[in-house]
Every structure is written in C-alpha cells, then in structure tokens.
Amino acid sequence: MQKIAVIDGLQYANWSETIFRQMRDGDVAAVHVTICYHENFRETVTNIAAWNRRFEQFRDLIFPLHSAVDVEKAMKEKRTAIVFGCQNCSPIENDIDLVHMCRQLGIRFMQLSYNNQSLLASGCYEAEDTGITRMGRQVIREMNRVGMAVDMSHSGEKSTLQAIDLSQRPIAITHANPAKWHSVPRNKSDTVLKALAESGGMLGVSLYPHHLKNGSACSLSSFCRMIAETVELMGIDHIGFGSDLCQDQPDSVVAWMRNGSWTRDVDHGEGAPGSEGFPEQPGWFRDNRHFRAILGGLEQAGFSREELEKIAHGNWLRFFVDSFDARES
Questions:
Q1: What is the pLDDT along the chain (329 residues), one digit of tens a residue?
Q2: Residue 329 falls within a domain, yes or no?
Q3: 1 in a structural domain
Q4: pTM to 2 decimals?
Q5: Is residue 328 part of a domain?
Q6: What does the alpha-carbon distance between residue 123 and residue 127 come to, in Å, rounded to a whole number?
Q7: Residue 84, beta-bridge partner list
Q8: How many distinct structural domains can be found in the chain?
Q9: CA Rg, the chain, in Å?
Q10: Are 308 and 299 spatial neighbours (Cβ–Cβ below 8 Å)?
Q11: CA 273/CA 270 separation, integer angstroms
Q12: Phi-psi region of 198 (alpha: psi -120 to 50; beta: other; left: phi over 0)
C-alpha cells in the first residue's frame, strides 16, 4: 500500500523523542493531544509551557497546530502538527471569558465533562444524566464563536444529544466506539452516532482496550468490521481515528485520570476492579507506526483508496476547517 497521511483525534502519551519519531515513521501528520484532565486554568497553562519547550527541542519533528492549513504544512515538511485539547472543562473554571483565553493559547478541543457531572454537562458514569446546564449552553455558544470544537467523548447520552442540537457547529466524539459492538458506558449508542453524523460531526474510533470488543485480545479483523458497520450507519464522511493511545505512561497516571482529586476511593472507571493499571494494547497497534496495519486491514475489508484517505485524514481535516476559525459575535 502507498503511504497515507494520518490524523489522530486523541492521544495522551508520555511524550518523548521516540514517540515523535514514531509519528513520522507512521506518516502521522497531526495529533490531538490531551493537555488537561482535571487541571485548572493555571495548571493547564503550565502544561502548555511544557509543550512549548518540546516544540523548541524537537522543532524538526513537531510544531503547534493553529488552523487546518498547518496539517498541509505538516504533510509537506514531514513533521507532525500538534493540536491541544482538554478532556474536561476544568481549565475554564467558572469563568466564560477563559474559553477565549484557552483558545488563544492554542486549545482547539474541549470536552464538556469527563465521566462525572461538571458545571456544563453530565458524564457517562453518572447515574442520572441531567443534560446540558445553564452554563453549558453559554459555553457551547462561546466555543462556537471563538473556534473551539465541542467534544463529548466522556459525556452522557442525554448531554451529548443536547450538545449536538445546541451547537451551531458540528461537534466531535474524538475517541469512542459503537456500544452495539462493545457495550460499555464510554461507547456510544446508534442514536447518538446517527445524530452526530446527521449534524456533520465526527467520530474518532478508539484503540484503547477498554473500548474494544475482547479488550486487548481484540482482533484487527474485528476492529475493521466494526469500522465498516459504523460507516454503514454514519456514512464514510464522519469517521476517523481517535486512538486514545497512552503509550509509555506509568500505571500511576491511570489513577490521576480516573480519580483526580475528587475522590479518596479508587474509581475503576472504564476498567473492572483489579485492573487499575493501563491495559495492554492489541499486538497490531502498539504505537503510531501501526496505523498502516489498520489501513491495510481496512483495504482487505474492501475499502477503496479514496475511502481510506477520508478515514485516515480527510474527514478530520474537513472538521478542522469547519471548526477552528473564529466568528463574529
């Protein structure tokens, strides 16, 4: 197979030169990286400062993405464009003005909630999904205005459907799979996926083992069949990759992701009790070089070159064009 550029809709790796070089070896042109789980605004700024140092140190490999044009630049220069995203709304605290400030700092995605109820929306692990809050409605409108994409990957069904309806721009579910294929709270119902596609939104299919049928033992053929069935449901124009790759992270980071500082108990989140550490990745997807294995599997499943390019990068690129420009008030 000829090389195909890839955009990955979500990663949270333990960043290093090794990973950045693997991105280039895997023709990964752009990656949405998580810069926040539970951090407040100042702590998120500290994380951005760390990325600025990486951009200086590894300028031959990575650079910050500000607009969709940077993806084409990355392809031409054989580098990887890095787009910032927050897996929680904690950086805006309770101040709507911080939405625009986050956008000015390079943040282009923000989840309205991360598993739990937030000031904006309900998370997917809450017993009751109360939907988008009063502040949430205002924040969605502000995100639409400044050019920041709404991400509902960890939110509840009612909240997600309301976000789709309320947003004047298409929203994203950057890293999840169909619940019909693997039924866990983090994966999404056909109702959500249909509404997402009808509104012009994007689904990033996830490689995180807790999102996969049979977990770490999920086969490549099963994953590719899932993508084919999801294309039948949503259409070819609304699906890309959102690997949720947490490469080289120590197990202690899982506790931070799930527990933050909101609980003294162990929150098992997406894993069963006794699986507090990171699950092992499937053998066919260990790092960024292995996207080509998935594309090869999709080719064997009957996808055309044009369809592969849409899934690999074209659909996300269109979403970036539609999402990242600022609009008048």
A1: 789 999 999 999 999 999 999 999 999 999 999 999 999 999 999 999 999 999 999 999 999 999 999 999 999 999 999 999 999 999 999 999 999 999 999 999 999 999 999 999 999 999 999 999 999 999 999 999 999 999 999 999 999 999 999 999 999 999 999 999 999 999 999 999 999 999 999 999 999 999 999 999 999 999 999 999 999 999 999 999 999 999 999 888 878 777 888 888 877 666 554 456 789 999 999 999 999 999 999 999 999 999 999 999 999 999 999 999 998 65
A2: no
A3: no
A4: 0.95
A5: no
A6: 9
A7: 33, 107
A8: 1
A9: 18
A10: yes
A11: 10
A12: alpha
- Which pair of structure tokens corresponds to residue 280? 């092992």
Cβ neighbours of residue 3 under 8 Å, at least 6 residues apart?
Answer: 27, 292
Q: Find the domain containing 263 and state its range.
A: 6-323
Question: Which amino acid is it at 192?
Answer: V
Output the domain CATH number for residue 163.
3.20.20.140
Do the beta carbons of residue 153 and residue 175 sit within 8 Å?
yes
Total count of residues recorded for the chain: 329
Q: Which amino acid is at 255?
A: A
Cα 102 to Cα 157: distance, rounded to the nearest angstrom: 26
